[in-house]
Design brief:
By secondary structure, this protein is an alpha+beta fold. It folds into three domains: 1-107, OB fold (Dihydrolipoamide Acetyltransferase, E2P), CATH 2.40.50.100; 113-163, Dihydrolipoamide Transferase, CATH 4.10.320.10; 207-401, 2-Layer Sandwich (Chloramphenicol Acetyltransferase). It contains eight helices and 19 strands. Strands 9, 12, 15, 16, 17, 18 and 19 form a seven-stranded mixed beta sheet that branches. A four-stranded antiparallel beta sheet has the order 1-8-6-3, with no helix packed on it. Strand 13 (278-280) and strand 14 form a beta hairpin. Helix 6 packs across helix 7 and helix 6 (239-253) crosses helix 8 (386-401). It starts with a strand and ends in an 11-residue tail after the last helix.
Length: 412
């Protein structure tokens, strides 16, 4: 009995998904709950399990294509299965992802590279392997340093560095494109981010506010105790963890900033779930710290470390990227000193934390060298005005400048 497999709803604010990679091909048997396809959104990559057992009869959506939730993406014959695993499948019954023709340039995609037997690869590692055209044999020959021998991104990058430095036989030069320009196809994640950011700027009237904060007290206290904290807690307690806690408290004081605009009015969110942007090779992933206002600095630091690692490994779950009510983006780690970020639709605002810079500042009647940083807020002007935005930033500023630790504790 043919059963349509449809694009699932991957989170409350996710209305579409991109087919990243088919893990089964037409004619292959599929067990119930066995991973069938990798689905990519602007939030996360997930391996979608098959809702039923049978024979994969047809693939309806090619790799790289984006479709809305509820669209049929494949057909499974539930009367098939192991008994008909070798049954022939008409070529016209599917859209083979490896041979899908691009409508805009007439080129064919390179065939999907096989996954080596017995080696489990994360979506991030698979994308790296495909981008650099690593064969299944090359991947199988890597020694994984991850948990249980899993191949990590660093393992692949080390191998690529070694391969690039090794002498290779002369190869025919690839034909140069006109004028030396090169077209780089968007990855599914990059395309999803582009579409989401375009929607945010199109639908949300952005307004901005920037405030300067003196974080000297936090910086000096952290420098004095970070080694002891790391030994005691098993994690690096970054400045970002302090800012997250301060922002969560400010959200509690200004619930309008922790809201969403709807056609019926402004929806105030009860939970304070703070997303933190993490840079990955294809773009930006935003894992979410749930109930951030209830967590102390140490707990937030541990969550940041765990979620950041999982984001870079491509192993985040849907739960770990869903439910965000506010976002923090830390452009300062890349040297930015003043940012104007785009709101993570459909949230009300996003906070940018920039680089901490040592510079002379007037203190009282004198001048002192202080650790200074800018905090920038982009907000939905339909929900609140600049006065609320600056009061919100002022609340964060007051906390970080008034930081008075007790003993060697990192807590406010």
């Amino acid at each position: 009995m043919p059963t349509e497999i449809k694009m699932p709803q991957l989170g409350e604010s996710v209305h579409e998904g991109t087919i990243g990679r088919w893990l089964k091909q037409p004619g292959e048997a599929v067990a119930k709950y066995e991973p069938l396809v990798e689905v990519i959104t602007d939030k996360v990559n997930v391996e979608m399990p098959s809702p039923s057992a049978g024979l994969l009869r047809a693939i309806l959506v090619a790799e790289g294509e984006t479709v809305v939730v509820g669209t049929a993406i494949a057909v499974i014959d539930e009367q098939g299965g192991a008994a008909v695993q070798g049954a022939a499948v008409p070529a016209t019954a599917s859209v083979p992802p490896a041979a899908a023709r691009s409508a805009d340039d007439g080129e064919r995609r390179a065939p999907a590279r096989p996954r080596p037997e017995g080696v489990k690869l994360t979506p991030l590692v698979r994308r790296l392997a495909e981008e650099h055209r690593l064969s299944a044999q090359e991947l199988a020959g890597l020694s994984g340093t991850g948990e249980g021998g899993r191949i990590t991104k660093d393992d692949v990058l080390r191998y690529l560095d070694a391969r690039a430095s090794a002498p290779r036989p002369a190869e025919a030069a690839a034909p140069a494109s006109a004028g030396g320009d090169q077209l780089h196809r968007l990855s599914p994640l990059r395309r999803a981010i582009a579409e989401r950011m375009t929607r945010s700027k199109r639908e949300i009237p952005h307004a901005y506010g920037i405030i300067e904060a003196d974080v000297t007290g936090i910086v000096r206290h952290r420098e004095a105790h970070k080694a002891a904290w790391s030994a005691r807690e098993g994690v690096n307690i970054s400045i970002t963890a302090f800012i997250v806690c301060a922002a969560a408290r400010a959200l509690r004081a200004f619930p309008m900033v922790n809201s969403t605009f709807t056609a019926d009015g402004v929806l105030y969110k009860q939970a304070i779930n703070l997303g933190v942007g993490v840079a990955v090779p294809d773009g930006l992933i935003v894992p979410v710290i749930k109930d951030a206002d209830r967590k102390p600095v140490v707990a937030v630091a541990k969550e940041l470390a765990r979620l950041s690692t999982r984001a870079r490994e491509g192993t985040l779950t849907l739960e770990e990227v869903s439910g965000g009510t506010f976002t923090l983006t830390n452009a300062g780690v890349f040297g930015s000193v003043m940012s104007m970020p785009i709101i993570n639709h459909p949230q009300a605002a996003i906070l940018a934390t920039d680089a901490i810079v040592r510079r002379p500042v007037v203190v009282g009647e004198g001048i002192a060298v202080r650790e200074m940083m800018y905090l920038g807020l982009a907000f939905d002007h339909r929900i609140f005005d600049g006065a609320v935005g600056m009061q919100f930033l002022g609340h964060i500023k007051q906390q970080v400048e008034g930081f008075t630790p007790v003993g060697d504790s990192p807590e406010f």
